[in-house]
Amino acid sequence: MTDALSELDFGDDGLVPVVAQDVDSDEVLMLAYANDEAVERTVETGRAHYYSRSRDELWEKGATSGHTQAVDSVRLDCDGDALLYRVTQEGGACHTGYRSCFYRTVEGETVGERVFDPDDVYE
Amino acid sequence: MTDALSELDFGDDGLVPVVAQDVDSDEVLMLAYANDEAVERTVETGRAHYYSRSRDELWEKGATSGHTQAVDSVRLDCDGDALLYRVTQEGGACHTGYRSCFYRTVEGETVGERVFDPDDVYE
Fold first, then answer.
1. Which residue from B27, B84, B108 is facing A2, i.e. has the nearest CB?
2. Which of A26, A27, A52, A105 to mutate to test the interface with B (most CBs of B within 10 A)?
3. Which chain A residues have a beta carbon less than 8 Å from that of B76?
4. A3-115, superfamily in CATH?
5. Distances (CA, A) of B15 to A110, B3, B83, B94, B110
6. CB within 10 Å: which end of chain A, N or C, has fewer?
7. Is pLDDT of A1 > 60?
8. Do A106 and B19 touch (CB under 8 A)?
9. What is the pLDDT of residues B49-96, one digit of tens each?
């Protein structure tokens, strides 16, 4: 662990929210969560790891789908309770097939780009 | 409330994480939280509102500092448990004086730009 990593505040549930951002386009791709092990593995391997709250397990992004995230850098925020992964996204970040999980507005307008058919990726 | 807003999942604590992104530069500025009232006020007024977990109150960004966020659009993610505010940021988003709260890497390198002196803004 580096000095800045030791400042991370994982909160009562042991998790910090992580924003994944495309390092080339700067598009915000997704928001997920990480525990300390997920952050360590991300820093060590250069591949984005998260912690799945629904499955209650460590999760390497793209391990099943092939839609991996190569991590260019990991930033933390001022008070150390949020992270930003700057990544090169393979395929799409969203399980629905969109490049970004934030593909629609609250008015219901679709603004994102669909880049794969989820039926071809997830069985 | 619009149809998409009604899909929001505020979780057990009544909050969703919100990513604020600069609509011009696409820089990720901060991560904060919103309750239903904060989202409604944001959509109604076009000014970014959040819910402060530490102060336990609704919070209009920049109401004290002048560093407001004019909201261009509000996006929600695929499963409705995170929001993206696309904003025009006045001054800096971070109380430390940086443009973005994500101004440093986990290796301890400063990558962000300082745009104001917090001593001039907060008393």
1. B108
2. A105
3. 102, 104-106
4. Phosphoribosyl-AMP cyclohydrolase (3.10.20.810)
5. 24, 19, 11, 21, 30
6. C
7. no
8. no
9. 999 999 999 999 999 999 999 999 999 999 999 999 999 999 999 999
Q: Mean of the per-residue pLDDT values for chain A?
A: 94
Amino acid at B59: W
Q: How many contacts (CB atoms, under 8 Å) link A and B? A: 102
Q: What is the per-residue DSSP string for A46-105?
A: SB-EEEETTTTEEEETTTTTS--EEEEEEEE-TTSS-EEEEEEESS-SSTTSBSSS--EE
Chain A residues touching residue B79 (CB < 8 angstroms): 101
Query: Which CATH superfamily includes the segment(s) B3-114?
Result: Phosphoribosyl-AMP cyclohydrolase (3.10.20.810)
- Given a contact cutoff of 8 angstroms between Cβ atoms, the answer to whether A61 and A50 are in contact is yes
Q: Which of residues 44-63 of A touch B (CB under 8 A)?
A: none
| Each residue's pLDDT tens digit, A84-103 | 999 999 999 999 999 999 99
CB–CB contact A4 B105 (8 Å):
yes
Which range is least confidently modeled, B3-12, B18-27, B89-98?
B3-12
At B4 the pLDDT is 80
Is B101 in the A-facing interface, judged by CB distances under 8 Å?
Answer: yes
The bridge status of strand B16-22 relative to strand B83-89 is: parallel
Which among A19, A75, A106 is the nearest to B74, CB-wise? A106
